[in-house]
Write a structure and sequence with these properties.
With 305 residues, the protein is of the alpha+beta class. The protein contains 9 helices and 12 strands. The protein is globular, with a radius of gyration of 20 Å. The chain binds adenosine-5'-triphosphate, thiamin phosphate and magnesium ion. Catalyzes the ATP-dependent phosphorylation of thiamine-monophosphate (TMP) to form thiamine-pyrophosphate (TPP), the active form of vitamin B1.
């Protein structure tokens, strides 16, 4: 199949939301948003973020959308639109590309975003770059810099699952299935970003590199410390099972495992929105601690370490 046939087959059945005034098919799309626009991009590279032996194409397509929309959620914006650039080897099976695009559309529907454009190229390995756009709808962005001493630190979504899934896959296993599924496609708590913003969240981010590492960004930008109270941390059963089977520390998966794309935020009061759970408190200082002590385990993911 040639490039333009491929584009037609990908874009023939795309439906869009009311904020799209011009969808796929021209040099650019047009959107009519009601407030300030948030824009974010994240890249997925074969061998770095996924392996084709581990991930069905559909999961890669879904993950590419999920990890980007979670950044829009983390700003307290309503996810609006997505563009997807895909580069892949010339000899890649066309079914792979079709399934990837099906995954993109499936996750767009789950996230409530419109696919409004993209790009295709050939490349030695599969690379996906997505840009996501969100509408603040009159709200202020929830940044990383608004945490103040005494605020409650809370999370919504899964923690530890994707990291446990990665270790499972690295050891050559495909089960337990739930953590593996979360590694292949994180379940982002869609809708919670706007809810947190409306409930007064003072800072927020999505957890891509591990809870402690990412909360460190809030500490740095807000000029505070954060203390995590491990008595408040639940260890999900499948995560505990992977830890036991691999001789690892289950708490380390939850605190330092990456790629769950849960949301973490600080709130000025104890009363949290439904679905959020308290994990700690903002303290004076400049770093994240665990039960009052520095964490001596591995920090979060670093692409260039
Ligand atoms: N190559 C780049 N050029 C310009 N800005 C960049 C570049 N890479 C990252 N940034 C910006 O730096 C900030 C932090 O980016 P980073 O990728 O660490 O955060 P993230 O996207 O939330 O996390 P993750 O990539 O782990 O999901 C963001 O504002 C991002 O737009
Ligand atoms: C094949 C394979 N090897 C390793 C990993 C683990 N991994 C890759 S990127 C990342 C952090 C988030 O990335 P980013 O900061 O780019 O969002 C993690 C934990 C994986 N998913 N697949
Ligand atoms: Mg990024």
């Amino acid at each position: 199949m040639h490039e333009f046939e491929l584009i037609s087959s990908i874009t023939s059945d795309v439906s869009v939301g009311d904020d799209v005034t011009l969808g796929i098919g021209d040099d650019a799309a047009a959107l009519r948003l009601t407030g300030d626009t948030v824009v974010t991009t994240d890249i997925l590279v074969e061998g770095v973020h996924f392996k084709r032996q581990w991930s069905p194409a559909r999961s890669v397509g879904r993950k590419a959308i999920a990890v980007n929309v979670s950044d829009v959620e983390a700003m307290g914006a309503r996810p609006s639109a997505i563009v997807v650039a895909l580069a892949f080897p010339k000899d890649l099976d066309q079914v792979w590309v079709a399934e990837f695009e099906a995954g993109v559309k499936e996750e767009c529907a789950r996230a409530g975003v419109s696919l409004v454009g993209g790009d295709l190229s050939s490349s030695p390995t599969v690379t996906v770059c997505v840009t996501a756009i969100g509408d603040l709808e009159g709200r202020l962005p929830v940044t990383r810099s608004g945490a103040r001493v005494g605020h409650v630190v809370a999370v919504t979504g899964n923690l530890g699952w994707a990291g446990a899934g990665l270790v499972t896959l690295q050891r050559g296993f495909a089960s337990p299935k739930e953590p593996v599924a979360e590694q292949l496609t994180p379940s982002v708590p869609y809708g919670q970003g706007v809810i947190a913003s409306d409930r007064g969240a003072t800072s927020m981010l999505d957890i891509s590199d591990g809870l402690l590492g990412d909360l460190g960004h809030i500490c740095e930008r807000s000029g505070v410390g954060i203390d995590i109270d491990t008595s408040l941390i639940e260890i999900p059963d499948p995560v505990a099972r992977v830890a036991a089977a691999t001789g690892r520390n289950a708490l380390a998966f939850v605190l330092a495992g990456g790629e769950d794309h849960a949301l973490a935020a600080t709130f000025p009061t104890e009363v949290l929105p439904e679905g959020w759970r308290r994990v700690g408190v903002v303290v004076s200082g400049d770093a994240v601690s665990v039960d009052g002590h520095p964490w001596d385990g591995a920090a979060g993911w670093d692409h260039f370490a």
